[in-house]
Amino acid sequence: MEWNRAITKNFIELYREKPCLWKISSEEYKNKNLKQVAYNELVEYLKSNGMTDINMKEVKSKIQNIRRMVRKERSKVEASKRSGNGRDDVYKPTLWYYDLLAFANDMDPLSSIDNITSKNNEEDEEDNCDNSHEEDKDESGMNQFSGNGNINQYD
User: Fold this and answer.
1) What is the pTM of this model?
2) DSSP readout, 105-146?
3) In DSSP terms, which residues pair with 143 in a beta bridge?
């Protein structure tokens, strides 16, 4: 047997009952043993529904895939809201299980902060305190960055 709508729907509902796998603000989320038990329960559910060859790695992969697809859809919705279009023009998700995973929406930030950028910003702020700092720019006036995070004209 393979994945179908009914198995996927029941899988998501069972996943929802296991906040140790998705609720990052929960103490349970930090408990590796509890997570192991929860993943095993998901594997057993699938095995009992004809997926006899399924393993934990495949279950984790399936969870990542369905959450990634929901994030993509949510990103489209958010982008359409910011586009300045009217309420009627907001993107409507086409993914059939989009609403089933709404419980995990606040656990998946749409964007992340790149700590390399943050580090460069901190260095820039420190350098701005010292008026002797000059940034190198190419012909277009754009900064040139080297692999070590420093600003250089040539690499």
Assistant:
1) 0.65
2) GGGS-SS---HHHHHHHHHHHHHHHSTT----B-TTS-B-B-
3) 137
Phi and psi at 12, nearest 5°, equal: -65, -40
Query: DSSP character for 18?
Result: -
pLDDT in tens, 22-42: 999 989 999 999 999 999 999
Query: Which SS3 state, helix, strand or coil, does residue 26 take?
Result: coil
CA distance 14 to 42: 7
Instruction: Quickly count: other Cβ atoms within 10 Å of residue 83's Cβ.
Output: 11
Query: Are the C-beta atoms of residues 21 and 108 closer than 8 Å to each other?
Result: no
Give the residue ranges of DSSP H helices in the chain: 5-16, 32-48, 56-82, 115-129
- Residues contacting 65, CB < 8 A, separation 6+: none
Query: How far out from the chain centre does Cα 133 lie?
Result: 37
Distance CA 85, CA 79 (A): 10
